[in-house]
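User: Okay, second chain of the day. Same drill as before: sequence in, structure tokens out.
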Amino acid sequence: MDILRLIRRGIKYSAGGISTFGLDLLLVYILTHYTPIPVSGALILGFLCGISINYLISYFWVFRGTTQTLARGYVYFLSIGICAGIAISYSTLFITQHTSLSILESRVCVASVIGIGNFLSNALINFKMT
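Assistant: Same drill. Structure tokens below.
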């Protein structure tokens, strides 16, 4: 395993993830302020839009050269993302309830740990690259 290559991919993966998370938040804001869509629907649409664009960035830029098919890789990526979302929710609540950290401070702590796990899962299991 080439650790420098993995780090470079991790940096690209983070850049894609941060930008698509921003898009997710923007979409949620627009949907909740300018449409009759309920908050739960806006959150789901924001997540699906963000993770789908994140996948395309990952497939064509971060993990360029993978032998994983576009469709199968998307199913794995979405599955990993859903599992990460569940882990983020419960971990953030747990930390907030058992420490003096705020919800946002807890979320930042959790994001860094789960984000690394999410990247490694995609790098090693989904795209099978280092």
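The longest helix spans residues 3-34.

User: Thanks, on to the next one.
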